Amino acid sequence: MTVSVKTDIPPDTLLIGIGASPGIAIGATHLLNRVRVVAVERSISSEEVAAEVDAFWKAVALSRQQLEEVKAGVTDQHLVEHLYIIDTHLLILGDAMLTSDTVALIEKEQINAEGALKRTLRKFREIFDSIEDEYLRERRSDIDSVGDRLLRNLVGVTQQSVTEIGKKAIIVAHDLSPADTMQMDKSKIIGFVTDVGGRTSHTAILARSMGIPAVLGLETATGLIAAGTPTIIDGTSGTVILNPSAETFREYLKKKQAYEYHERELLAYRELSAETLDGFRLALRGNVELADEVPLAISQGAEGIGLYRSEFLYMNRPLPPSEEEQLQAYRDILAKMAPHPVTIRTLDVGGDKFVPEINLADEANPAMGLRAVRFSLKERRLFKIQLRAILRASAHGRVRVMFPMISGVAEIRACKVLLEEAKAELVAEEIPFNAAISVGIMIETPSAALIAGLLAREVDFFSVGTNDLIQYCLAVDRGNEHVAYLYEPLHPAILRALKMICDAGREAGIEVGMCGEMAADPLYSLVLLGLGFDELSMNAPGIPRVKRILRQLRRSEGVAILDEIFGFATAREVAEYLEIEMARRFPEYFAGPIP
Ligand code: PEP
Ligand code: MG
């Protein structure tokens, strides 16, 4: 490969993307040849049909073989637990909708295999694009990844593998598949940036688990960055700096050293409990989407799973999972997490996106539409199957069931009626379960916060979903970059809502947790402690840092700052106050070079 440095890039050119995997990498770029294969559709004669169908099946077989090879090549323990991603890709490859729809198109429409595949993939993409939930929507990238592989194999185009990179580099690519990421040799690939992708894509999840800094979603990186460009990437803030000046270089070298030092130091906190200096103990738990993420949560010191997003089980498949299949999945998580508790959140999706047998109309306003528990209460048969599976799992470990997006008492009562029905069925069938299973709700709508006192009488625990609570309280779409500046966790309205929820929970004597992203930001730890949260559940890598902070705080300090906090009129004032308070206590985190 010829190395050419674009001299027209001015020093310290700044690009901002999505910080998908924390850490700092400094080095020269390597452009990965990821020319997208464009499928060209053409009509074929009836004599050509058999050959096109045959070519399609050969491409499927070759893709399968390649994925099996990636799997066989993974030995790194951190990656073994992520092999489910490749398994997911293998499942997609074997998906009847993908293969039989394509073959049917070749046969019925008499078009070539490439064209037929393109049409089938477009249909899949449309389904995924209409999904409102960010995590699930990004599973589209798995379909894209399999689709690209199939297409390349169909037209016989090979692409450069990450394993061919011979010297240390920061990879720049339009997109990287999870399979690419898994094959990365950390001693060579010190970081990567891509045009597409988001924080919850599998590529991002893998990068975090491998400890490779990554900035995704830069949109135009491949057009702008030449091979060999000296580059700094900061995967924490999502910053990329091209042609850094000597001064910027020194600044980031210091940041990198400080980051690496703190990461090593944090390892020591994994085994310790999250107990404050005045003996107040919080439960720090992990948020997971899949059983395979549980070992990572354990390795980060999670004392249970505070949010299991069960919707993942319903994905990548034409029909929803059976009761037995769900039971196996729940038992798997429980067994891995034992003796700690696992909170299973019931299905949190909207509409007909995953359940083709149910055909609901498109909604003008999906965030306020038939989503989460509203969907479950409408599709009661589906809901009952899930409740039965959760109940049956409760015979095998500490399961808690949690209902998402509750907006009023009638809704939780309706859920409990169904739960009781499911229990009665199991009793009649002599199937064991824990009759005293803990029942909780997510508090993520303003109405739920306002009537937290009424809701607290109905349940055993609350878990605050700040991702949604903030969006609904402040009327700010959590995925809309144009109003992102209004998405403020420290907004006085949010702080008041959190206080109402905690006070109501305490008065009723029930546990109050938080499982939104706000729980993972150590800047908020002092306030959350003061408000009286019993549990903080977060993405696993966030746990050691929050634990370290909590262990050096007193709950009384948290309570003492509340008066001050509630005296401020804007989120900025609260943030400035908190930054000073936290920097005074933890200069290495809040006042030093690490943001
Ligand atoms: C939340 O809304 O804060 C939450 C944890 O749920 P999700 O991000 O899955 O909507
Ligand atoms: Mg939510």
List keywords for this structure.
TIM Barrel; single chain; 595 residues; Glucose Oxidase, domain 1; binds magnesium ion; 3 domains; 46% helix; Enzyme I, Chain A, domain 2
Classify the secondary structure makeup into a structural class.
Answer: alpha/beta
CATH architecture of the largest domain: Alpha-Beta Barrel
| Discrete helix count | 25
**In CATH, what is the class of the largest domain?**
Alpha Beta
Number of strands: 17
Please give the share of residues in helix.
Answer: 40-55%
Please state how the strands of the largest beta sheet are arranged side by side.
Answer: 1-8-7-3-4-5-6-2
Low-confidence stretches: 1-6, 351-360
Tell me, briefly, the overall form. globular
Mean pLDDT score, rounded?
Answer: 88
Q: CATH homologous superfamily of the largest domain?
A: Phosphoenolpyruvate-binding domains
Strand content: 5-15%
Number of domains: 3
Radius of gyration: 25 Å
Bound molecules: phosphoenolpyruvate, magnesium ion
Distance between the termini: 37 Å
Query: At the third CATH level, what is the topology name of the largest domain?
Result: TIM Barrel
Main pleated sheet: 8 strands, mixed
Active site: 202 (tele-phosphohistidine intermediate), 515 (proton donor)
Domain PEP-utilising enzyme C-terminal: 268-553
InterPro entries: PEP-util_enz_mobile_dom, PEP-utilizing_PTS_enzyme, PEP_util_AS, PEP_util_C, Phosphohistidine_dom_sf, PTS_EI, PTS_EI-like, PTS_EIN
Domain Phosphotransferase system enzyme I N-terminal: 17-139
